[in-house]
């Protein structure tokens, strides 16, 4: 693997192989320059995709004494250890926080779980949709009169899980600069999912979220903050909340404000939605995109993941990159003095080779 750059250059991370949230959090750290060593079990997970990029990979059998000994050799030199087992598993196998921090008091021991390290559900199985449900983040998602609908596994696994893990690791590393000591980071997807809903709790308290599912300003209830089907089956995303953007929306749709219901008249939202629906259905998605391209209306074409990589804005910024023949989002955010390197595919290494470089 070529030399890496980024604001986390010099940070040494040991990642125990897992699925989704842990790999994503470690991908973020690796993208930003950390040297992440992925510890795979014999036979591996069969995964070597975008979430595993920028890694060097060692294979250890952590059910054997030799495998644990090699892991602890890495831990002794590392800044961070990331594991995603159910609570108690790492302890039973012999590499829980106690033995790891005994040999390396500066170690940040990061734990990625669904339910956290304690609580009635801590030992239970779960997936993204379950964590959202218990966090109160699933119930508001969807259309009126329809079941709640999970936005694939973006919220709990990645935003409330892996990204929360990365933030926790960075905070612990920052605190270590003052104390000289590491600590355990308990990153739970149920906590992260609840945290993502902070704004909604504030809106409820302020009386600004009074309707049921799909009946409010930002959940598709407002006809000027929703998606609309175009003539060709494509969709437009409309986020024309503020008066000036709403005025530009009407201009682009060639509608006269004087002949329409008032923007904030909730009782007439169904009629306003009917008018917008009919109007958007009269042209193709790309025709509408062209019509709105010169208007500040907050109207955008809904792109597929493949189309997004070809959008002119994303192409100019280099938002998407190709790694190992797979197109994928590039590192973010961006830095002026310490930009991240171009991502690379994972490559195999050994504990001995890692330790020789970490001296």
Question: What can you see in these coordinates?
Answer:
This protein has 359 residues and is of the alpha/beta class. Strand 1, helix 1 and strand 2 form a beta-alpha-beta unit. A 7-stranded parallel beta sheet has the order 6-5-4-1-2-3-12, with helices on both faces. The protein has a 3-stranded antiparallel beta sheet with strand order 7-8-9, with helices on one face. The mean pLDDT is 96. The protein has 14 helices and 12 strands.
Please state the overall shape, judged from the principal axes of the Cα atoms: elongated
Poorly predicted sequence stretches spanning 5 or more consecutive residues? none
Mean pLDDT over the residues: 96
- Kindly name the structural category: alpha/beta
List key phrases describing it:
14 helices, 7-stranded parallel beta sheet, 359 residues, alpha/beta
Brief write-up:
By secondary structure, this protein is an alpha/beta fold. Helix content is about 40%, strand content about 15%.
Secondary structure elements and their pairing?
Elements: E1 12-16, H1 21-31, E2 35-40, E3 55-59, H2 65-77, E4 80-83, H3 89-93, H4 97-103, E5 108-113, H5 128-135, H6 154-179, E6 184-188, H7 189-196, H8 198-205, E7 225-229, E8 235-239, H9 243-253, H10 269-280, H11 285-292, E9 299-301, H12 305-310, H13 312-317, E10 320-323, E11 326-329, E12 347-348, H14 351-358
Parallel strand pairs: 1-2, 1-4, 2-3, 3-12, 4-5, 5-6
Antiparallel strand pairs: 7-8, 8-9, 10-11
Helix pairs in contact: 1-6, 2-14, 5-6, 5-7, 6-7
């Amino acid at each position: 693997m070529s030399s890496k750059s980024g604001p986390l250059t010099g940070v040494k991370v040991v990642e125990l192989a897992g699925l989704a949230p842990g790999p994503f959090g470690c991908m973020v750290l690796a993208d930003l320059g950390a040297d992440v060593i992925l510890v795979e079990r014999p036979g591996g997970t069969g995964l070597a995709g975008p979430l595993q990029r920028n890694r060097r990979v060692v294979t250890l059998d952590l059910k054997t004494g030799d495998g644990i000994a090699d892991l602890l050799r890495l831990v002794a030199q590392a800044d961070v250890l990331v594991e995603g087992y159910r609570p108690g598993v790492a302890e039973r196998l012999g590499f829980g926080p106690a033995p790891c921090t005994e040999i390396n008091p500066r170690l940040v021991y990061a734990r990625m779980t669904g339910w956290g390290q304690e609580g009635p559900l801590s030992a239970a199985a779960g997936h993204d949709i379950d964590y959202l449900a218990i966090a109160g983040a699933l119930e508001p998602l969807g259309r009126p009169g329809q079941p709640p609908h999970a936005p694939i596994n973006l919220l709990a696994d990645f935003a409330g899980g892996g990204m929360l893990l990365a933030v926790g690791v960075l905070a612990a590393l920052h605190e270590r600069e003052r104390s000289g000591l590491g600590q355990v980071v308990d990153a739970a997807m149920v906590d992260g999912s609840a945290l993502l809903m902070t704004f909604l709790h504030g809106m409820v308290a302020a009386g600004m979220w009074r309707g049921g599912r799909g009946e409010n300003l930002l959940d598709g209830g407002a006809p000027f903050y929703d998606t609309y089907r175009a003539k060709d089956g494509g969709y437009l995303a409309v986020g024309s909340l503020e008066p000036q953007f709403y005025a530009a929306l009407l201009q682009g749709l060639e509608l006269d404000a004087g002949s329409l219901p008032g923007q904030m008249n909730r009782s007439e939202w169904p009629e306003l939605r009917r008018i917008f629906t009919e109007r958007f259905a009269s042209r193709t998605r790309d025709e509408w995109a062209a019509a709105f391209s010169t208007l500040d209306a907050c109207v955008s074409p809904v792109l597929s993941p493949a189309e997004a990589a070809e959008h002119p804005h994303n192409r100019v910024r280099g938002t998407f990159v190709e790694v190992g023949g797979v197109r994928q989002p590039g590192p973010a955010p961006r830095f002026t003095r310490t930009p991240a390197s171009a991502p690379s595919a994972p490559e195999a290494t050994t504990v001995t080779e890692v330790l020789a470089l970490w001296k």
